[in-house]
Design a protein that fits this description.
This protein is an alpha+beta fold. The chain contains eleven helices and 13 strands. It has helices at about 1-15, 90-100, 125-140, 145-160, 170-175, 215-235, 250-255, 260-285, 290-305, 310-325, 350-365; strands spanning about 20-30, 40, 45-55, 60-65, 75, 110-115, 180-185, 190-195, 200-210, 325-335, 340-345, 370-375, 380. It binds alpha-D-galactopyranose.
């Protein structure tokens, strides 16, 4: 990939790139729609991701080019930026805008990005491009931010520049991921443990439903707002700053305060899903993959019935998996409304699984899904 990018760079800009960077995408093993409720999540970085090649130019301009999109941009160095339409380069442009709050950018830059994360698949291509840009500028200009500051910066871009009220999980996972490890992250304190993700006889399969994620952003923001309503209503009796502070017992005592049945369903998911992450971390630590798999199915059901962020395509994949002998757990991963599911698939059954799932999925949905076997990779780095 590095050689290919170097070639493209030379063809486009007539000079060699001086620096190369990589940031992965992520899957979340369990703990969905929990990060913005201050609870536990368990993501890991994958080996797909975004590469960035960079060199300074002598003009006061930032040039954005991607091998994935046609649109390119040459944007003059200024003191601040605002989002320009819906173009892909808003993500890295938002990072420039954040850095300009603290530092002057001393020189223009030529940039080329290349990603192999399927866009809109829920594997965090946006966190990947944000973090690769933040990591690169910090490294290249020696700005002195630590990794967590870069994560928080990328989250601000997503929230304030792009306009999605997402939590911290994706940016955190793609920055801090470690090969063969899952991160157990407390989204309230931002403390985390990288735990061995030993899947024994199983592989982690990623199944992309290939469903275009229309309206996903507005529905995501609606879920965030519903959780805030639940929190406000619970706060009439108890003092909480996040829903995940509640145990299931305490929630049962106070849930009558939530007046809207839909909001009650959302809060019930959050409290129970947070418990499931604790149980899943224990199961993984004990090597009890069957239990881990059961928790994955329970998580999916809750996202389908209580949080209502699944859909016919994700349900088709998980329905197939639950009837397929060689899968012990499956669930949607990420925000939902399309995107990807993950499954614990017995090693050696990859081909059979792909064939049978494809037949089933095409018959039910009308077009094929894409199936990958994923390695757990490292977080952001220079390469
Ligand atoms: C998206 C968001 C994350 C998280 C997940 C759902 O990926 O970016 O912050 O909320 O959805 O768990």
């Amino acid at each position: 990939m590095k050689a290919e990018l170097t070639n493209e760079f030379f063809n486009k800009y007539g000079q060699q790139p001086t620096h190369h960077y990589f940031t992965p995408g992520r899957v979340n093993l369990i703990g969905e729609h929990i990060d913005y409720n201050g609870g536990l999540v368990m993501p890991c970085a994958v080996t797909m991701g975004t590469w960035l090649a960079l060199a300074p130019n002598n003009e006061n301009v930032i040039r954005f080019k991607s091998l994935n999109f046609e649109e390119e941009a040459a944007i003059e160095l200024k003191d601040s930026y605002i989002k320009e339409g819906k173009e892909w380069y808003n993500y890295p442009l938002g990072i420039f805008n954040e850095i300009l709050k603290d530092h002057k950018i001393p020189t223009g830059l030529d940039l080329i990005f290349h990603g192999n994360i399927p866009i809109g698949s829920g594997l965090s291509s946006s966190a990947s491009i944000e973090v690769v840009m933040a990591y690169a500028l910090n490294d290249y200009f020696n700005l002195g931010y630590d990794r967590l500051q870069l994560v928080l910066m990328a989250k601000r871009v997503e929230n304030d520049f792009i306009g999605l009220n997402s939590g911290i999980m994706d940016q955190f996972a793609v920055a801090f991921g470690e090969s063969h490890k899952a991160l157990v992250l407390d989204c309230d304190t931002l403390k985390y443990k990288a735990v061995d993700c030993n899947l024994g006889d199983y592989n982690l399969a990623i199944i992309n439903t290939n469903k275009p994620r229309k309206l996903a952003e507005s529905k995501y923001n609606e879920r965030v707002a519903e959780c805030q309503t639940a929190l406000q209503q619970l706060n009439q009796e108890i003092k909480l700053h996040a829903l995940c502070e509640l145990t299931a017992e305490k929630f049962a005592l106070h849930s009558h305060l939530i007046t809207d049945p839909t909001v009650l369903k959302r809060a019930t998911h959050v409290v129970k899903e947070n418990d499931r992450v604790n149980l899943a971390a224990k199961a993984l630590n004990n090597g009890d993959l069957e239990e881990f798999g059961r928790l994955m199915y329970a998580s999916h059901q809750s996202l389908r019935d209580l949080y209502e962020v699944s859909g016919a395509e994700l349900d088709a994949v998980v329905d197939f998996c639950s009837d397929y002998e060689h899968v012990i757990g499956a669930r949607m991963t990420g925000a939902g409304f399309g995107g990807c599911a993950i499954a614990l698939l017995k090693k050696g059954k990859e081909e059979d699984f792909a064939k049978q799932l494809t037949d089933f999925y095409v018959a039910r949905i009308g077009y094929p899904a894409a199936i990958y076997i994923s390695e757990i990779g490292n977080g952001a780095s220079a390469i």
